[in-house]
Each structure stands twice: as C-alpha cells, then as structure tokens.
Amino acid sequence: MKNFLGKTMAALLIGSAANAADIQLPAPQNEGGMPLMQALNERKSIRQFGQRPIDMQTLSNILWAAYGVNRPDGGYRTIPTAKNERDLTVYITTPEGVWRYEAETNLLREISQTSLLDMFKLQDYMQDAQLVLIYTGSTADYAAMHAGSAYQNVGLYAASAGMSNVVRGYFQREEVQNALNLPYGQRVIISQVIGWAD
Ligand SMILES: Cc1cc2nc3c(=O)[nH]c(=O)nc-3n(C[C@H](O)[C@H](O)[C@H](O)COP(=O)(O)O)c2cc1C
C-alpha cells in the first residue's frame, strides 16, 4: 500500500503551534466543484476503493466539507449545529495513524501513530480503504444530527470530486471508542470511508 501522506508530509509540518506530527492542511478549495443539483443527483454509496493516494488538498477539502469554518469570524461551520454549540468532532484514521481535525486552524492534531483502519474492515470492500472519518459527539439528541449533516456534505463532495464514499455503522465500535481515548462523555457516533476507486 502506498504511503497515504506521501513524501509531502515533511513539507507540511508546522512549527511552534503544533507537535511534530501535527499536520497543517492547505487552505480548502471552497469555490467551484460540481453544480449542487448535479451533485445531489450523483450522490451515492460506492463500495470500491483502490490504492491511489489522497493528496493533502483533497483531504483538506473533504474535512472542510464535513465541518470546516465557512464564515470570517471563525465561529460557524459548513453544517448547522444546535445553538451553534458545535457538538461534533471529526477524527480521521489512515494507514499512518489517527488525527483530530481542528477546523479553526485547519490543522490535523495527531492523536496516535497507530492506525485504526483494521477496525473498519469488517466488510470486504474496505480492504484497501485509506481514509476513514470518525464522527464523535456528546449530546444524546443532537450529536448524531450533526454527524449526519457532516457525512451528507462529504457525500456531496465525493460526488463532485468523483470519489467513492460510504457511511459506515458496521465497525468495531467499542475498540474504536477505546482507542480514541475520547474526553469524558464523548462517544463515537458513525464513520465514513472516502477514497478513490482506483
Ligand atoms: C447511518 C448509516 C449507516 C450505514 N452503515 C453502513 C455500513 O456499515 N456498511 C455499508 O456498506 N453501508 C452502510 N450505509 C450505507 C447505506 O447502506 C446506503 O446509504 C443505502 O443502502 C442507500 O444507498 P445510497 O447511499 O447509494 O443511496 C450506512 C448508511 C447510513 C446512513
């Protein structure tokens, strides 16, 4: 399997505000793409994933679609949240480890250098998957709604970019929950795989 982060990773590390393995993402490309009505028409689950690496720009775009900051004061996101309390956190796992998406600074904060991908491979089509988004939250009533908004945005981005994606409830939930070592009261809600079909 090719290295997910590729050789560009070293060039993308940032200095003082982050640890060595945190990753400063490039600014998301928040213009263009497929017309909305066409993306809605093409949104679907595609259960095919290949070896083509996902570059940092695409990763930044995916995460911005999911939960990025979309207004200048930094306090609002691409999804609505109850009382704007933003009860949602997005983690990613790749072959290299686990990161938490920090939208305000467009940073991936390293959580672990141990990949959790194997915990998502209960279905055959997942064998070559390289990127899984893990949505976590705390409130019983709203967090799942926020996750649903985020995974729909990612599904639309995938349609626009020609990528495969599947929302996935079938994974080793308890193992993932334990491995993430979430803050008290936080739980894993749902996951989503995204990548290139080839
Ligand atoms: C909450 C949720 C959980 C899902 N879990 C899985 C899953 O574990 N594995 C899978 O292959 N598809 C999963 N799906 C995808 C659905 O099977 C899929 O959305 C549905 O069959 C409709 O197909 P479409 O997305 O192409 O419209 C899930 C979808 C949702 C919304």
At a glance:
The protein has 198 residues and is an alpha+beta fold. It has helices at residues 9-12, 36-42, 56-67, 143-161, 173-180, and strands at residues 23-24, 89-94, 97-102, 107-112, 132-137, 164-168, 187-195.
Keywords:
binds flavin mononucleotide; 25% helix; 198 residues; alpha+beta; 7-stranded antiparallel β-sheet
Large-scale geometry = globular
| Oligomeric grouping of the chains | single chain
Gross CATH architecture: 3-Layer(aba) Sandwich
CATH superfamily membership:
NADH Oxidase
- Uncertain segments are 6-17
What is the terminal separation in angstroms? 12 Å
* CATH T-level fold name: NADH Oxidase
Number of helices: 5
Query: What class do helices, strands and sheet pairing give?
Result: alpha+beta
Listed once per kind, the bound small molecules are: flavin mononucleotide
Taken together, the total number of domains comes to: 1
Mean pLDDT: 92
The largest sheet is: 7 strands, antiparallel
- Give the helices and strands as they follow along the chain: HEHHEEEEHEHE
The largest beta-sheet arranges its strands as: 1-4-3-2-5-7-6
CATH classification class = Alpha Beta
Rg calc:
16 Å
Strand content: 15-25%
